[in-house]
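#lab-general

N.A. 3:47 PM
ok so I finally got the sequence cleaned up, no stray characters, all 1631 residues accounted for. can someone with queue access submit it? mine expired

B.Y. 3:52 PM
send it over

N.A. 3:53 PM
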Amino acid sequence: MVESRVRRLALALLEAGAAPGAEPEARAALGAALGALGAAEPEELLGACGHFLQQHPRVRHGIGVIGVIGVIGLPWPWREAVLASVAAAIRSRLPDLGAGAAAAAAALAAQEMERGKEPERQEAAGALLVELGRRFPGPALEQLLRKFPPGILPPPALLRTLARLAAANVFGTVPFLSSILATLVPLLPTARDDSMKCTLCYALQCFSESIQEFLAGGTQDPDPTVGADDFGLELGAAFDILSLQWLQARDGKVRLAALEALGSMSSLIPGRQLQEQLPKLVPAVLGLYRKHPEPFPVSKSLCQLLAAARGGRALEAQLEPLLAALLAQLVAPADPKVPSSSRNQAELLRCFSVLALPFPARLLAWLLPRLHGGSERLRQGALRLLRHLLNSAPSQMEMQKDSILSALKVPLQDESNKVKLALVQLISALAHHGFLEQPGAEALLEFLVQQCALPADGPPGIPEENPEDPTSADVRSAGVSTLLLLSSTVPRLGHVLWRFLLPLLLRPLLAPALAPLCRSLTRLARHGPREHENLPSPQALTVRLLAVSWRPWAGGGRGAPALQLLRELRLVPPELRESWNSEIPKLLRLLQENTEESLDQQEWEEKLLQFFRESLSSIPDKSWICPLVAETFRQLRDADGSAAEKDFLYRSMGTALGLWPGKELVRRQLQELLENAQYQEEAEREGLASCFGICARSHPEETLEKLEEFEQSDACRKSQGFFGIFKDQNQLDVEQSRAALALCLAHLSHGLFHIFSPFFPHFFPIFFPISPPIFSPFFPIFSPFPNTFPCFSRTRTSWTWSGGRQPWRSAWAAFPWEFLRAESPEAPRLREHALSACASLVIPGGRRPRRARRSRFSLSRDGSALEPALGEAERAELLRAALGTAGPEQEPFPAALTELLQGILRRRLSPSGLQEIFAHLGPWIRSPREPERERGLGISKSLLEFFLENLDVRAVTPFPALPALLALLAPRCSDGIPGIRARSLDCVGALLRIQLCFQGFSRDHRDELLEELPALRAGLENPEIPDASVLWHTCERLGVVVGRRIPAEQLPELLLELLRAWDDPERNCGRAAAAIGTALIRERGGILHEQVGIQNSQKFPVPALLAALRARLAPLPEPQLQRAARAALRALARSLPERVLGCLLAWGPPRDSAGRCLWGALLSEPSLPPALLEPLLGRLSRDAPGAESRAVSAAPGPQAAGALAELAAAPEAAAALRARFPELFRALLLLLGGPAGPRPPRAPRDPQHRDTPGSCAVQTLKAILARTGNDDVVRDVGNAGGWELMEIPERHHDGIALLAGAMARLCGPRLPPIVRSLIPVLGSALECQRVTSSAFLAELLSHKVVTDLVLLEPILDALTALEKDSCLLVRVLALRGLGNVASGSPEKTRRHGAQLLASMLHGMDDKDDPKDLLALEAMSGLSKILDHLEERDVRSMLLHIAIRIRPFFDSEHAELRRSSIILFGNLSRSGRADSEVFSEQILNGLAPLLLHLQDPQPGVVKACKFALRMCGPGLGCEQLREMFGNHLREERVLHYGEFTNDVCKFLMRSRPELLGRLISTNLFYFRSPWQELRAAAAMSLGFLVLHVDEEQGQQLDLDQLISALQLLLKDPAPTVRIKAAETMGRLVRIL
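B.Y. 4:20 PM
back already:
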């Protein structure tokens, strides 16, 4: 009986896979099921599969009686899968398989191989035979040889199977190969088909490889009766046929197959036969390279042939063409499309290794000339081949050392990066084999170091053809790695490397390689003492290593390696070595703790120079310094142009000369430095000056003496005579020499001015012939030496601008301008002298300002100003240059700048001239930087006082610059700097006095108002920032003073300028501008009305001022400025109330922040809000939906709401709004919906667009709530998104519910009048009003406040009456409110339980509910109510509710599924006490709930977890209860497969009687519309079958299960089909 059930199941699986529409994944699962069945009962599976395959022959096509093509049999993919499953079963149970079953399987496979014509079917059958042959070679060979009669070529599949069997079971098959070959080889000439020839070659190759493995022994002992001679005759005959005939076939596949077979057979045929065939075979094989794109098979077979030949005369005769062909293949570019390119290269190198053993001399004689001849690729390949030969045949290459080294001299000059890289790699191999110790190997080492010095980006030229080719950086990296490797891993090479590498440190051209050189030498020095004879001196090495450490991060970070090598040197005196051992680690630690960006280069240079100075000072024998000076000069002369190294060498030269006691050496060396310096280079000039400055500290007289001699030499003299006009270059050289001399003098003056000052008049005339482009870069150098440049000014003070000295005057005119353009901000003293020079050129002689403070070194008065005077463009350029040289913030502004500006103003003493200067000075005054503002105010005060002092007004004229200057300077009275505040009042006072002068008053006129300014100034000079009230009082009083003294026609312009000053970067100044403007309006606002009708009437009327004020309000983020703007508006309104109100009303409702601010300022007057509230409320009542009078247009609604919103923005209106809050709230709440709910606004492009009543009502309601103290309600609703929902028609009621909830939580005492006014609205004829009021009241029931305020019963009765409302949404909201009673008044729920339950059941049974919205709300409400009712209250309804909600488990709406499942869980919890009543319902709902855990909606899955947790105690199984409680927590991720497996296991253990019910429920869900549930049902069914016991398994209707699963295998979803196939595999469990 068991066998029949297994057979039935196997046949069902086989039939399922045979379905035409089966997916590959489903067939794979069915195949796995067959494999599982075979693993349990392999012999039964073999029988069933054999029967099935016999009943289903191969696919045949034919035309039936009705003329339609018919298909009979199995498709070959499934037949192949069946055979593969059988093979897998045999593989897994091969040790347990009986001989009879093996024979039957072999017969089945042979039959399939014979009947099948499809190659895949034959291959699958062959694979089955191969698996059987691993343990049963006899039956497999018997079946195969039975199909192999003598004299007839066997099928190709049979030959391939024989070949694979020979490879799979060598020791079981090789003894039979002699007879097989004896039968097969004579048939080779009869093969005509190319595919058959390929198969025969493949078989011969596999046979040969198996014979070789057999003869080698492997893991088993071969049969001693079987030897190589048993196969030689047959393989020799086959070798001749393949080499003479098939190797020349037209088909490339035949040629390659024959070649591979020849390579495998070559070691098994007699040697004489192979030698006879080589003369023809080798050229034929080499010719295949040209015929086949993939050379790897050719190279592999050729290598096998060469290895089998073992030399011989036949091979020697063909050696040169063979080598040429192999090298050509080796250097050929690799084809990226050919995956075996790297393997081909390895085989080619093996061929050369094989040839090197018998022919080493001839191979090298042929290879070495190719190292320097031919193409780049050929040279690279030859070098690579030579490296391979050195490693693979070292003993043969040992005898050819001299010839190899000699041949490598030419490749060292190659410029190709490929060749260089190959040479570097070859040098590494040469070093390990002792070649570099031979004479002549120095060139190789030098080449290696040269590659370490290659630039990272390579030389400019033609780019590489292939971007993958090595670059100069790659070659450099390889050279560095090789050099470090040789110094570490080849100890015997240490002395050679030490003697060769140490002198290379001094070569300037190898500077880029210093880092790896120093590392290698450091490693060599640490390995032991080294000889020092005939090597560079210690002084040379010391100077060189310290020079390259001057820039430690250059050259790949050579500073640290150089210092480490310096520490390891043992050539210096003991005192110096002792100092280095303690100081060098400190320098190295500094480099380790910093990066290139973080290291302070100046600090590093000072430390390194101090280290050098202390090192020389620690040597008692100063004679060691003399060679160091000579070596420093030599390296300086031979330097490669590196500015950093020259800088160090010059400084070290000065340091060494300063420590040398002898005078003569110092003079001689200084003379050599002056004679050999390259004055054209800036680095040379600076370095030379540094050297002289350092040396002069110890030898001042000798240094100055050499400078005097140099000044008198030809280097500092121009060429004279007729031919001097052709020597421009000589003149430039002289200027550069003079510049160098000037720098030397500057360095000498540092700290030694008392010594050198008498000599400066002698040197001074050499400076001025220097052109500014050469001299200007050296101005910053004078800043550390303040005593140097003033000597130029002292010399200048004695000059006069006479006619004979006019060229000097022109030079001085150009010189300050050039300096101001090129000067550095770090030179304040120099800048002061330059500004003073500019002032002397601008100010007319004898008319310098009397109060201008003169600089210590300023020019004399008797100079003449430039004539003619500067033009406007020149004057602007001079002002930009002068004011652009501010200098560091901590420096005060130079007095010469004030002197210069006063001179410019004197030339143009007028309001326009004053405005011109202040236009350039304004950025300083408004600067966010305090030092610039302080300078700007100081200069402004000085200029205004100068203007007032020199002003000469002879007629009453206006002062047009007054408004702009007052708006610029007056707000500075509130600056954070005391000096700025005081100077601001001084400037305002000066401006007002200038205004009085323009009005005809004398300069010394005393004005009472202006006399108040000193008192205000005294209060602002406090170093601490004054109190805000003090600043505000000052601004107010200053506004009064200015308002009373400014002309009436200039007042509007001043007000507008002050409005622009609100954006000042200094916030206090912006606030001061606002305060001054407000005071002006308060003081003189009445005269603005008088401006209409006079000049500029269109520019400065009240509307224009209001428009400007409104424009300035929009971008203001500061509350202080907002308050100032409102104060200004109120002041203007008090002055001109009618005009202000008229303008605001003409603009219409406020639509932006500025407009609302204007309205708010206006309404903040205490008398306005109460008067406006009553008419606005009446307008809202008329605009509310349902009002009796509809004559009023909808347009006033938004206007009224907007005006009310602005009213609510006024704090003074709070009391009036609180008094009328209930009426306002009700009116706005009803306005929210509009006649048909809230409408979205029109497109912005509609010119007639107006806000809807709903949107305006939302904003107004928010404003009123906030103003009446309920801003927490506004925030709460806003955080929940309620205000946005109110403007969406479909979600309007949700927003109302959020508003009601916030009102109930945060302002409950205000609800009774609102509720009483809304309950009558429930009977309104307008649906929108009923929706709005019912949504509000329904949400109130979810809060306890309705019980506290005794509002529960009225609201409950009102909502219950809506059960039969004509609007579905109203009925839904009513049910929602009734359900909310359980949340808001749980203690009252049972009291009204009957009423609530009746309403819920009525809602569930409502027929006018096409989308089940009422049922959904009723189920949600029941879930809430059941928690607060006792069991006896709901016992009579449990079954009715449970039966009513079961259809919703599989509803297409996810929310219905979720709510019904949650309600089922609550019912389960309520019905636990009466298990007889509800336990059956729990068992009926268990399977659907388990399946819906795979529901596509996460909310349904969450509900199922809750329901199953509630149902767990009613199942009577403790394991299930615990598992439901642990695994079905909401926050835990569920592994559904494992969970279902455990559930089925516990169910079958505790409630086995549920098996039939569970299986029928799962079979029902096979038709579910969701593929996830169908797949889960199939999986659950499989797990039930997996855990059923044997007795129950026999009772299952296997045919029903198989039929259902077969239908499920046709499901359109692949996942469902796969799960069905897996379940069919698990049906093995019930057999």
